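ARCHIVE CARD
Drawer: 12
Card no.: 0347
Subject: one protein chain, sequence and derived structure
Cross-reference: see card 0346
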Amino acid sequence: MTKRGPEQQLLEHLSASLQDRTFVRLILSRPAHPEHNPEKIFARCVDLRDAPHLSFTFRFPTKDITKNMSLAAGIDWLKEQIGRDFRSALLCTTRRDWQLAWPKSGECRIVAHQPSVTQAPSREHDRARQEILEATAQDWLRALGVTDATGKVRERMADKYRQINRYIEIFSHLAIDCGWRSPGSSERASVEASERPSVEASRCGQDENAAPLPTLGRSPLQRSPSTAAPLTIADMGSGKGCLTFGIWHLFQRVWRIPVCVIGVEERKDLATSTLKVAREIRAAGLEFRQGTIDSVALPRVDALIALHACNTATDHAILRGIDRGARLILTAPCCHKELRPQLKHPPTLASVLKHGVMEERMAEWVTDGLRALFLEWAGYRTKIFEFVSTEHTAKNLMISAVRATEPFSSGKVRERIVELKSFFGIQQHALDALLERSHDS
């Protein structure tokens, strides 16, 4: 009888867990060729077109790529990867975890552990987490006009309600990427919640004039959340406050993670009305300030959000986030006006860009593509994806950036920025000042 190798055993455990629905996740790491392969590959099971698929996320230093495969195709593909391109694999099931590793000296071996997760995740693809906005959210949803006195979503606010849920879902994933929440933790509480101090209904942190930051570039991640202080999140352009309240609700009421959320709004009436609601519901750790992206005083922040900031206001928000040490920067740009007048038509694209609508879209893509590159130059891992909006356009691109590497140190990324600007004849970009920075400055 032929002895089964450790790789074959792992694949058999994978197939069995997918069959009996005990599969949680699979992680491949330790790439054999780091210069060519992703740092890690994450696999989860999702239902697509009424059939289970393996959804793979390829984690590169500055971006993630997702690819879905049928179960059979995914397992066949993994046979080629495990042991050849990746030297470590972790299979998590609700019954047992299986670790496959190749020691520096010796043969491959497989080791079984107690399960780290005892409940299989939902297989729904891009599921909306509307259960988060349950009864505990009714006070602010009602005060902001999203629901009526009975708790029913108002017909004209149905799109806004869905948008809040989608926004919360996105932020839930980003919180895991930032290390603020464990992938295996309950929806109802964070693994660190009991260790964090409470947040009083006072001003969130010290403003920048009172607490200057050390020179950026010394640490790849800046401050990681710790027990020393609550997380601080700044929402630039908070408007009527629906999404700002949603983030506060997610951290404070759902996860029980103390947080200071600062909504910044230029319009005095909106800043005043949202602050009034926050005080009425006694929302500790939530405040609203009147000001602009450039002028408002901010403490050191863990996350900076700027949704639908027009034109270069998005770039100003990115700069504020970098300079205030944000681990996470999240933007949904609109009104891309700065680059279009500068955009030249490279000969290879001239026949396409002669159409005004194509030129306009190209200007948008180049603008947001450069923003992602500038963020990567500043040490962030970026993703660009679609986010549904109800207030500006049918869909906006959203840029998420999580600090991952030493800032201002990758010559290759800097070179790509210069090359892209040159290709389209761009003379000036609102983030150009970042090119003058270096890791040692």
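Annotation on reverse: The first helix runs from residue 6 to 19. DSSP finds ten helices and 14 strands in the chain.
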